[in-house]
Design brief:
The structure is a homodimer. In chain A, strand 5, helix 9 and strand 6 form a beta-alpha-beta unit. By secondary structure, chain A is of the alpha/beta class. Chain A is elongated, with a radius of gyration of 27 Å. In chain A, strands 6-5-7-8-9-10 form a six-stranded mixed beta sheet, with helices on both faces. A four-stranded parallel beta sheet of chain A has the order 2-1-3-4, with helices on both faces. In chain A, 46% of the residues lie in helices and 14% in strands. Chain A is built from 14 helices and ten strands. At the A-B interface, helix 4, helix 5, strand 2, helix 6 and helix 11 of A face helix 4, helix 5, strand 2, helix 6 and helix 11 of B. Chain A binds a DNA duplex through residues 1-2, 20-22, 30-37, 40, 45-47, 50, 65-66, 68-75.
Chain lengths: 339, 339
DNA sequence: TTGTATGCGTTATCAA
DNA sequence: TTGATAACGCATACAA
């Protein structure tokens, strides 16, 4: 082992070359192996004194394990890829923060990957490339992963977190919306999709749940509509809906934006909200609480709706698994003035 | 070396261990060094035959360079960290897509880091940790980086892209808003901050630009207000503003949400928009075009406002530097009904 | 309880 | 024109 660099100065001054485990070993007066063991918390077999010396030496030098060296020898890195769907929800950053914190809790580092559903082929390549080069410890799917990409992960042996236990949140959301509208006295219920998200599975599942609720409660079958995000189009949709409902009705909307578009259309058509027609969104976006009438909406309890990922993270990487909350607590209706 | 799983089945075959440069070398009948050279496009000094054999062997095996091995020997990885501010703008994902494409263009991989401005200390640590473990080739700042973090990058010798040539977009935005209001006939102009972003430098710069515009045009000095994102608070702010302006006035707002909050307050107070009071936002968020009156706002031309980063990327990593568009083209006013 | 030796996949240097 | 070999920093089986 000709480990020592040629013209090595006694103290590599400051920052240019980050400290290595060899530096720590030298300062602590132990071998590199000991440093490695101690810093990986395999302390059981070392004297308290040694452990302490190693730790303080590491702290003193500002030593940070090289991800590269570690990844090379481990066969995979300490990163976890967070796949985020294109469909942006307002509190995306809060979601990311919650999961990131949990990922760090178990000693890994989160890395965000935006899954861009439009550029199909390009998308798939981008993700593959990331996985191949990063070799992450795992992938946490927030909803942006395509079946092909899931297959790819299996193929390269990269664990997909919480794959088997994704709770079906979308039916719960749809049911909650229908229930709420019903409880506020609307006997006719409709479901409003976002028009340019044709293949969105979320909406389909929620709409079906609304339909099922109506069937169970012996309400008329809910008509479906697709709402474009511009005023004229939204008004047309609402106009077409009026004759199909015969009077007072409530609309379960795909998200707050759709609800706002319809509420605005209703006002423009001289309808009373919530007297004639009611709207409930999903998201609890700030803008919904600022406008008038304020929006009734379904808000997510993040720590609950993400708990399956957090849980799976703990199971896979040896953190402390928290008790798993029931999926029923994942969402709640925020009462506004639109229902 | 616990490389092989204990009860390994024979069928682990294809994928578990990705191909290495040694595999490629074997298949091509050359040495690992040759493989490395060829695959790094240093082909000048090899026979066409060798180059071809290496390339087809690599393709056949689906060989992908190990980021870990490469990072280890290079001292830094092939990743570029994209720092994204908390202040979410709607087309965030489009922005990320544009820059990501450019990063890939020069053979690097984008990694997104959300900078969470609220959790101050935690934030700083998260970023440091990412930089220390990833050792990225560079950092591209979309606006989320604190001065401390910039210092940190310098300290560890990580290049910050386009550091010296960040165009001052914020003054341009403020000026554009003021100009627009003036051109629509509003002689009294105000600036409205977001109330819970006290230290936000963007707002400060824009407000100053508005003030400067007014001074240049001999308009009265614009009062500043801070708008909370809830209806009661926003109405209070507007009420306080009324006596200070004496009649018809226009408000340059920090973003669309602030503008919407004030426009809603104006309606609630029985003011005519845009007859009595006008609002112009920044963002061109979809919701601003859905509500009534639709919002006049400042929209960004992404490819322009990101061009300094794209340019710097090319300079630093040897891509093809595009001609740099003028900063004046970076933003435009979208005329709505609120001014 | 601690140290030695080795290999992970890549690139750079130098020898052939 | 090509190849052998030595690092890079780390983790771990095994020897002491």
């Amino acid at each position: 082992m000709s480990r020592q660099p040629v013209g090595d100065e006694p103290v590599a001054s400051a920052r240019l070359r980050p400290a290595t485990s060899a530096d720590v070993a030298r300062l602590a007066g132990v071998s590199r192996a000991t440093v490695s063991h101690v810093l990986n918390d395999q302390v059981a077999r070392f004297s308290a004194d040694t452990v302490e010396r190693v730790r303080s030496a590491a702290a003193e030098l500002g030593y940070v394990r090289s991800a590269a060296g570690r990844a090379l020898v481990m066969g995979r890195s300490d990163f976890v890829v967070l796949v985020v769907p294109y469909t942006t929800f307002t509190n995306l950053q809060d979601v990311i923060e919650v999961i990131s914190a949990q990922i760090e809790e178990v000693g890994l580092s989160p890395v965000i990957h935006f899954s861009v559903s439009r550029a199909e082929s390009a998308k798939s390549r981008r993700f593959q490339h990331l996985i191949e080069t990063l070799r992450p410890a795992g992938v946490a799917d927030l909803g942006g992963l395509s079946p092909q990409e899931v297959d790819f992960l299996a193929e390269v042996g990269c664990p997909l977190l919480a794959e088997d236990e994704q709770p079906d949140y979308n039916p719960a959301i749809g049911r909650l919306q229908a229930e709420h509208l019903h409880s506020r006295g609307y006997e006719r219920i409709c479901y409003a999709f976002l028009s340019d998200a044709r293949d969105d599975p979320y909406g389909q599942q929620r709409a079906r749940a609304v339909t099922e609720y109506c069937a169970r409660e012996s309400l008329p079958e809910p008509p479906y509509v697709r709402v474009p995000l511009e005023r004229e189009g939204a008004r047309e949709v609402l106009k077409e809906l009026l004759p199909r409902t015969g009077g007072r009705f409530g609309v379960a909307c795909y998200n707050d934006l759709v609800a706002i578009a319809l509420a605005e259309s209703a006002a423009a058509l001289g309808l009373d909200v919530p007297g004639d027609v009611a709207f409930i969104g999903v998201e609890h976006a700030p803008v919904g609480q600022i406008i008038s009438p304020s929006l009734t909406t379904v808000a997510a309890n993040m720590s609950v709706s993400l708990s399956h990922i957090v849980h799976s993270l703990a199971v896979e990487f040896g953190g402390t698994p928290l008790p798993r909350p029931s999926p029923d607590q994942a969402f709640r209706v925020v009462q506004g003035e639109s229902t």
